[in-house]
Design a protein that fits this description.
Strand order of the largest sheet: 2-3-1-4-8
Strand content: 5-15%
Helix content: 40-55%
Number of strands: 8
CATH topology: Rossmann fold
CATH architecture: 3-Layer(aba) Sandwich
Radius of gyration: 19 Å
Bound molecules: adenosine-5'-diphosphate, zinc ion
Number of domains: 1
Order of helices and strands: HEHEHHHHEHEHEEEHHEH
């Protein structure tokens, strides 16, 4: 994919792919809640920072119409809020984030719980960046069980460490439209300038070398155990995160295909059952 075609990451403002409720909390209604098609996709994306979960979540959202729910984007949006609008817990969360550490489960859960409408949404979801600890995974499991909502699958993106570090340290983002570039792999036409909107490109604070190290350690310690957690529940799918975003997306779709067929068969079965009744 050329840099100009890069998907925009979620931004604080509402757009077709980032529903208002996720960014603004439960007091906001989404303008275009999709109609239930009977079997919405409910996916969790796992993988170390830098494997490209956000890009895949965007592409999956386009294909499956399930909403992209990123906790990282939520915290970044919150960090732009006026200081007087930030709660003490949120201010502390921003500090953790800047250092590359995980935000405490209680703060993350408060934000996600406030947005449980997005988890219940008939359109389904692609969760990106949550859950990130076993504690968070248990909380999500309990919430979904209490609502009688099943997870469809958990996709784990795998990439060698050296490649992860190269991706993160070269990542540059447009300040205005959030398009993502890479200093050497996908450079913009004019250095430091967005191809799409002329906005200035910046390096995320947590993409600096000191923070990258902390993030990768936090991933190994807290998030990698989730792979086993979801393997045991039979939901895990492994996808190699090498190559272009399209390559990775195609691999993801292939992995999800048996799920799609299973869900289609279930629908036919349910319809036949209904006719018999
Ligand atoms: P990454 O590129 O590391 O996957 P994200 O955009 O998902 O980054 O998240 C950025 C930062 O936001 C994390 O390093 C962490 O500080 C915080 N964060 C996001 N989601 C969570 C979560 N579920 N639990 C704890 N901290 C989180
Ligand atoms: Zn731009």
């Amino acid at each position: 994919m050329a840099a100009t075609d890069k998907p925009q990451k979620a931004s604080a403002s509402h757009s077709k792919h980032d529903r208002a409720t996720w960014f603004q909390g439960s007091s906001w209604a989404c303008p275009d809640v999709p109609q239930s098609n009977g079997s919405p996709w409910r996916l969790v994306l796992l993988g170390a920072p830098g494997v490209g979960k956000g890009t895949q979540a965007y592409l999956l959202n386009q294909r499956l119409k399930a909403c992209h729910l990123s906790t990282g984007d939520l915290f970044r949006a919150a960090s732009k809020a006026k200081e007087c609008d930030q709660t003490p817990a949120m201010k502390a969360a921003m500090e953790y984030m800047r250092r590359g550490e995980l935000v405490p489960d209680a703060t993350v859960w408060e934000m996600v719980r406030e947005r449980s409408a997005c988890i219940r949404c008939a359109g389904g979801f692609v969760l990106d960046g949550f859950p990130r600890t076993l504690g968070q995974a248990e909380l999500l499991k309990r919430l979904m069980a209490s609502e009688g909502i099943p997870l469809t699958a958990v996709v784990n993106y795998e990439l060698p460490l050296a490649e992860i570090v190269a991706r993160l340290s070269g990542r540059r983002t447009c300040e205005k439209c959030k398009t993502v570039y890479h200093a050497t792999e996908r450079p913009p036409k004019v250095a430091g300038c967005c191809d799409r909107c002329d906005g200035k490109l910046f390096q995320r604070e947590d993409d600096r070398p000191e923070s990258i190290k902390v993030r990768l350690e936090a991933y190994e310690r807290s998030t990698a155990p989730l792979i086993d957690f979801y393997r045991k529940s039979g939901l895990l799918m492994q996808v190699a995160a090498k190559g272009t975003p399209e390559d990775i997306f195609q691999r993801t779709v292939v992995e999800l295909e048996p799920q799609r067929i299973g869900r289609f068969a279930q629908k036919l079965w349910d319809a036949a059952e209904n006719r018999r009744e």
